[in-house]
Amino acid sequence: MTAIDPVIIMKQEVGKAAANLVQSNSVVGLGTGSTTAYAIEYLGARLQSGEISNIVGVPTSFQAQVLARKYGIPLTTLDVIVKMDIAIDGADEVDPQKNLIKGGGAAHTQEKIVDSLADIFVVVVDGNKLVDKLGSTFLLPVEVLPMAMTPVMLKLEALGGKPSLRMGVKKAGPVVTDQGNLVIDVKFDSIDDPADLERTINNMPGVLENGLFVGVADLILVGEIIDGKPVVREIR
Ligand SMILES: O=C(CO)[C@H](O)[C@H](O)COP(=O)(O)O
Predict the structure, then answer these.
(1) Ligand 1 center to residue 31 CA distance, Å?
(2) Distance, CA 91 to ligand 1 centroid (Å)?
(3) Is residue 70 scored above 80 in pLDDT?
(4) Which of 78, 94, 122, 135 has the smallest C-beta neighbourhood within 10 Å, fewest atoms?
(5) Which positions are catalytic residues (predicted)?
(6) Can you say whether the dihedral through the CA atoms of 120, 125, 127, 128 is positive or negative?
(7) What is the DSSP code (8-state) at residue 169?
(8) Could you give all domains of the chain from N- to C-terminal order, each with its CATH number?
(9) Strands, E assignment, the chain
(10) What is the largest CA-CA distance in the chain?
(11) ipTM passes above 0.90
């Protein structure tokens, strides 16, 4: 028998813990990524079993939409509801102030809209995502209109970043977002002031959104393996 990858076990456990926070009669933001996929699966299971009722989801991507349909979670849009009770989403890096880098799945623009409208934004990560300083392990994703790619790259370089266009896997050419735009991944040697960098990049003409989420997360659920057993730690 092959052993299950411990990272998958941690993702499943945090996904389950986040799904268990959802109460009946809630509007739920449904994030994107492999960890959130487990939360959507468990939330669907709770709904289908009758453990909770009257849940409606707001998806942050095409992926979240497909998963919600698969697991029987009804969906709505931001034209119909004003805010969410809770949003569950993953992250690529989490710093000690609960600031995040997101966008590993190129979905950070819709994710920031949905996650920031929730009363409680719960982030689901495995322990490998915790960093002392944002940008230390992950490149910062920036969604741009295709015609603005070159001027935005030059401006990012002038800020001290090393930008590269995100390329597709099993597809020739660049990654195209759910909105039909491109993603520039930027290496910064050090992100000393995430709030300032978030504002500065979003002020560049042609930038839709960048992956810095500053002051948005309320609760981080961290999946860890301690003494061979999966545990979920809360950071508030
Ligand atoms: O921001 C995201 C997508 O844009 C994801 O939430 C982030 O990349 C984490 O994904 P995973 O849980 O697969 O590691």
Answers:
(1) 8
(2) 5
(3) yes
(4) 78
(5) 111
(6) negative
(7) S
(8) 4-129+213-233 (3.40.50.1360), 138-207 (3.30.70.260)
(9) 26-30, 55-59, 84-89, 93-94, 100-101, 118-126, 140-144, 162-165, 182-187, 207-210, 212-213, 219-226, 229-235
(10) 55
(11) yes
